[in-house]
């Protein structure tokens, strides 16, 4: 949503988990900030700015060891869960390969060398029509079926790029000579936009990503044509 201070509305389960983890992390940061500010106010209000001596306290040492450890564990466990969850299952219904170039994306849909291939360029200002998004519309959108386990292989043909869809809470670096794996899947039809999220040259801002989610019937008809 434009002019919004929050994150985009999530489109899948991974995105919802990522956004919940973000809110939880911000809550912990706020908790620490409030604790530090209260400690500063207590010290300033007491007027005792100089340390006159030290006293040992086993309870205090236990507290400032256990509490930070618990907070780190509460951040680490869901973070690891999300990293493994983003890679998805072992079995997939469809494989898509996204390769970044300067400055466009090329896609391959299919397995074992079978399927279709096409390039996706940003639509110029002269070709935009009413309702299109400037710097986000492309000439060939990536059309995928919803309610499907999809594996996305992300790579690059020249320099570093990044294939990112903020409304799904995912981002994968496109590295030359290497394939990174993403898992996609949504439960309803729709349309989402993204952009290259790695500075890749003078036209870095002109590498949009557009994914359309349709039914299997429409997907087969679209690629049969």
From TrEMBL:
Is Metal-binding found in the keyword set? yes
Q: One cellular component GO annotation, for this chain's record?
A: mitochondrial inner membrane
BP GO annotations: ATP synthesis coupled electron transport
Q: Where are the transmembrane segments?
A: 26-50, 62-86
PROSITE patterns listed in its UniProt record: COX2, COX2_CUA, COX2_TM
Record's bilayer topology term:
Multi-pass membrane protein
Cofactor binding summary note:
Binds a copper A center.
Question: Catalysed reaction(s)?
Answer: 4 Fe(II)-[cytochrome c] + O2 + 8 H(+)(in) = 4 Fe(III)-[cytochrome c] + 2 H2O + 4 H(+)(out)
Which cofactors, by name? Cu cation
Every Cytochrome oxidase subunit II copper A binding domain range: 91-225
Among InterPro entries, the record links this protein to:
CcO_II, CcO_II-like_C, CcO_II_C, Copper_CuA, Cupredoxin, Cyt_c_oxidase_su2_TM_dom, Cyt_c_oxidase_su2_TM_sf
The domain of life is Eukaryota
Q: Ranges for the Cytochrome oxidase subunit II transmembrane region profile domain?
A: 1-90
Which keywords has UniProt assigned to this entry? Copper, Electron transport, Magnesium, Membrane, Metal-binding, Mitochondrion, Mitochondrion inner membrane, Respiratory chain, Translocase, Transmembrane, Transmembrane helix, Transport
Q: GO MF annotations for this entry?
A: copper ion binding; cytochrome-c oxidase activity
Subcellular localization, as worded in the UniProt entry? Mitochondrion inner membrane
Cited function: Component of the cytochrome c oxidase, the last enzyme in the mitochondrial electron transport chain which drives oxidative phosphorylation. The respiratory chain contains 3 multisubunit complexes succinate dehydrogenase (complex II, CII), ubiquinol-cytochrome c oxidoreductase (cytochrome b-c1 complex, complex III, CIII) and cytochrome c oxidase (complex IV, CIV), that cooperate to transfer electrons derived from NADH and succinate to molecular oxygen, creating an electrochemical gradient over the inner membrane that drives transmembrane transport and the ATP synthase.
Q: Which PANTHER family match?
A: CYTOCHROME C OXIDASE SUBUNIT 2, CYTOCHROME C OXIDASE, SUBUNIT II
Q: Indicate the family of this protein.
A: Belongs to the cytochrome c oxidase subunit 2 family.
Q: What is this protein called?
A: Cytochrome c oxidase subunit 2
Gene name, per UniProt, is COX2
């Amino acid at each position: 949503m434009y002019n919004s201070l929050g994150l985009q509305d999530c489109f899948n389960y991974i995105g919802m988990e990522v956004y919940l983890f973000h809110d939880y992390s911000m809550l912990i940061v706020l908790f620490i900030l409030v604790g530090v500010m209260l400690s500063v106010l207590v010290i300033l209000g007491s007027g005792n700015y100089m340390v006159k001596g030290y006293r040992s306290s086993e309870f205090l040492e236990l507290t400032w060891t256990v509490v930070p450890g618990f907070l780190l564990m509460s951040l680490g466990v869901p973070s690891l869960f999300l990293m493994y969850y983003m890679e998805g299952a072992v079995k997939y219904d469809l494989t898509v390969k996204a390769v970044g170039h300067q400055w466009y994306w090329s896609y391959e849909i299919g397995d074992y060398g079978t399927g279709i291939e096409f390039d996706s360029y940003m639509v110029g200002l002269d070709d935009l029509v009413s309702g299109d998004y400037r710097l986000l519309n492309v000439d060939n959108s990536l059309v995928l079926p919803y309610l499907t386990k999809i594996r996305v292989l992300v790579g690059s043909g020249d320099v570093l790029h990044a294939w990112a869809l903020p409304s799904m809470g995912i981002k994968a670096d496109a590295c030359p000579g290497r394939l990174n794996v993403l898992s996609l899947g949504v439960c309803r039809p729709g349309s989402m936009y993204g952009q290259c999220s790695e500075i890749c040259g003078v036209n870095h801002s002109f590498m949009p990503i557009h994914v359309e989610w349709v039914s299997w019937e429409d997907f087969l008809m679209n690629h049969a044509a």
